[in-house]
What we know:
The chain is mainly alpha-helical. It is built from 13 helices and two strands, in the order ααααααααββααααα. Helix 9 packs antiparallel against helix 10. The longest helix is centred in the middle third of the chain and has 37 residues. It is rod-shaped and about 155 Å long. The termini are far apart.
Amino acid sequence: MRSPEPLREPLRDGLHALPLTLLHALLLAVAMLACAGVRAQPSASESASASASAPVVAPVPVKVAASAIDADAVWTAEGEVRADPLWAGDEKKKVLRFKKKSKDQEPEKKAQTPDDSLWWIELFKNLSSGLRVALWLIVAAALIWVLLRLRDWLKGQEGGRALKAAPPTHVGSLDIRPESLPDDIGAAARALWQRGEQRAALSLLYRGALSRLVHGHGVPIRSASTERECLVLAAARVSPASLDFLSRLVSGWQTVAYAQRELPADRFEALCADFDARMAQGSAT
């Protein structure tokens, strides 16, 4: 006789492979049979007519509750089946889905981060110690670089002011250095005029006037300044009488140097006589 163990193994495997849909179909079939049993019972009118025509028979008690199965009994039976150790169990699956943000959570997030400008503080807190040290070194190097640039800029500004304050040695081709001029400019110009060197005489007077304006009155004349620019710059530093003398001197210099014409002797003598009085060093008269 064959042992029952080999027969139980296929039965156990078949129950383990029984899908959940088959269980539901079985429960549905039980419920349909119950409903069919209830429908098979005769109604009250039919039973009354049948009792009138048929002979009276003693009633036989019928247990209707045994054939009527409600929903609770169905779910109870399902629970018992699931509790059976031969049942394979349910299969669980995990599916990734996008999380939907509710509108109620947005105000909470805004309330937790009232100041969005402090994000770099949170980032610095999350950095490791090594990255923090490296970041501090970078900040220190940048600060040192800025300080060095600022120092060089300040030195450049001071050097620029010193360069601006340095007076020119020449205006155009005319040497205006004090050491290149005689002590008595008017007398030296007369001597040149008497030798017939009118251009040299007027050039000496004009050079002396420019040197007195730059070194004696502090007029900011540059090496490329023209005669008209020199007059405009001198207007703020000298008196009207001195400015009138400069205008007559510039006119005589332009007549001889550019127009190639002779200057009247009386005009030249007036320039020589007024030079020391109007162009005295440090004087604004």
